[in-house]
């Protein structure tokens, strides 16, 4: 058999097993998880966070990462990654690494913290209100100055 067929056989052994579709899917997911752990162990430190194993078909390893700069660093070190992966039976025929960029869909924002007004800033606002000729602005500045917390 050719090298490509050997690799297809290794990754497709799960799909040929008997059982229900759900069992086959669970088995494939388990194999994918194992493969992802092997790949992430081969990736240099600092590049593993945000990087995922997508697939490995016909000797082409596909990775996904969250930033373009990380993708560039992975491409730069692809030979080092392939060398480490080839020590494992599943990835012995890997000859190409393709890196895709898939930014995170949602990033939780911190809730803005309201910083209490210091006594010094309240004093400065009250002082500025005293020098202001505009009545509406003076009232607003005085109201702001009254929000001081002890």
Radius of gyration, in Å, reads 29 Å
CATH superfamily of the largest domain: DnaA, N-terminal domain
Number of helices: 6
Class derived from helix and strand content: alpha+beta
Descriptive report:
The protein is elongated, with a radius of gyration of 29 Å. The protein has six helices and three strands. The chain has a three-stranded mixed sheet with strand order 1-2-3. Helix content is about 50%, strand content about 15%. The mean pLDDT is about 85. The chain has about 150 residues and is α+β, with helices and mostly antiparallel strands. The protein has two domains: about 5-100, DnaA, N-terminal domain (GMP Synthetase, Chain A, domain 3); about 115-150, no CATH class. Strand 1 and strand 2 (about 60-65) form a beta hairpin. The protein has helices spanning about 5-10, 20-40, 70-75, 80-85, 120-130, 135-145, and strands at about 50-55, 60-65, 95-100. Helix 5 (about 120-130) runs antiparallel to helix 6 (about 135-145).
Strand and helix layout:
Blueprint: H1 3-12, H2 21-42, E1 51-57, E2 60-65, H3 68-76, H4 78-85, E3 96-101, H5 119-131, H6 135-145
Parallel strand pairs: 2-3
Antiparallel strand pairs: 1-2
Helix pairs in contact: 5-6
Task: Provide a quick synopsis of the model.
The protein has 150 residues and is an alpha+beta fold.
């Amino acid at each position: 058999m050719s090298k490509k067929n050997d690799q297809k056989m290794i990754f497709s052994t799960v799909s040929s097993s008997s059982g229900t579709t759900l069992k086959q899917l669970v088995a494939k997911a388990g194999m994918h998880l194992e493969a992802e752990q092997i790949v992430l162990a081969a990736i240099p430190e600092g590049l593993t966070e945000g990087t995922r194993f997508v697939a490995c078909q016909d000797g082409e390893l596909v990775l996904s990462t969250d930033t373009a700069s990380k993708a560039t660093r992975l491409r730069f070190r692809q030979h080092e990654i392939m060398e480490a992966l080839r020590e494992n039976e599943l990835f012995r025929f890997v000859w190409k690494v393709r890196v895709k960029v898939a930014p995170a869909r949602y990033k939780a924002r911190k809730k803005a913290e309201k910083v209490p007004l210091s006594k010094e800033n309240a004093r400065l606002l009250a002082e500025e209100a005293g020098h202001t000729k505009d009545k509406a602005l003076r009232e607003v500045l005085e109201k702001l100055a009254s929000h001081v917390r002890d």
